[in-house]
Amino acid sequence: xxxxxxxxxxxxxxxxxxxxxxxGLMGMGGLSPTAQAxxxxxxxxxxxxxxxxxxxxxxxxxxxxHTLAAYVLAIRQGADYIEPDLVSTKDGVLVARHxxxxxxxxxxxxxxxxxxxxxxxxxxxxxxxGWFVEDFKFDELKKLRAIERLGTVRTWNNQYxxxxxxPSFEEIIELVAAESAAIGRPIGLVPEIKHSTxxxxxxxxxxxxxxxxxxxxxxxxxxxxxxxxFEVSNLKYMxxxxxxxxxxxxxxxxxxxxxxxxxxxxxYSSKSGLTYExxxxxxxxxxxxxxxxxxxxxxxxxxxxxxxxxLTTPTRLxxxxxxxxxxxxxWTFRPENRFLAAEFRNNAGENSRNxxxxxxxxxxxxxxxxxxxxxxxxxxGRQAIEASMVxxxxx
Length: 395
Hints:
It is a single chain. This protein has a single domain, classed as Alpha-Beta Barrel (TIM Barrel). 32% of the residues lie in helices and 13% in strands. The protein contains 14 helices and 13 strands. The chain has helices at 6-17, 68-77, 138-141, 169-183, 196-201, 207-216, 233-242, 265-270, 276-279, 282-288, 299-302, 317-323, 355-367, 378-394, and strands spanning 52-55, 81-82, 85-88, 94-96, 119-123, 126-130, 188-189, 192-193, 225-229, 248-253, 294-296, 327-333, 372-375. The longest helix has 17 residues, at 378-394.
């Protein structure tokens, strides 16, 4: 299914791919000093491997997440990859939302014409109330506008509430292809298939639709592509179907926590008993390496926080993953004090941006051996990577 008719593509690219003013990236309320930086990724220096930078939901520290504006800004900040989390509409169009519940990231609650769609659902063992993407057709979803999820923390982003639509996966690919051509470097995509087993249970299996889009777009025949999921069976299925193309990597996301949060959604549904804790043992990592190229843990699984909220000793996760032949890409670095380990915070308040503290924290994790990371602010992530390479040369 192609939500963007071919005759509209040129106009789309010109409007959103190359016109920053139309996205609030210029003019009144424009970029912060950090966001104005547009560095190109630094190549490998003197044999040191380049740590890769993944724009978490776009430049979500500076624009509402999963909007074309957030993606453009992240690219201009120097991200190697941008991340569209994908869920499905009622009519099978893949769109970018971190979860299928629209309540926190759109203005759906103010839209009286959709009041009747509010409901309760149980997804991967957790019950939620709200409005859900799979209950909307694509043309209905396009009537909604994005809002800032963390409006009391990222008050800067509230000025953009109501400006941006929810983009389809195809629209995002068109944008990335246009930006790549405009700035002269490849830009990768790191799409995540969200709630795969749940979508399959309601007749909206996403993987085949997803792969059809990949195969249909020329840009993705050579552009870097890293496919991620917190589930296992869908990654194995896509590895079998897509093979081992040079531009393709498979990323197994892992998390922690009791109950459903501590196991893949397909394992919870099938009652197999598989947990992320088991997957992160040396044996479990070797099992992951049979179908995936990357394991992606929460940052704090690599260097945990102690009772005082300061970083403790690194775990063996990076070393064990590398021994199994896996790269390690961690999530997620955020620049506000409330999200930093205690030793990197300043006295400006828990919701304040702390750029130097954020860069220092990322440098600590890079030193621990990670191969890449997700960041809400790609300009700061790029600063940390470049500083780490300078330090490696000096060392």
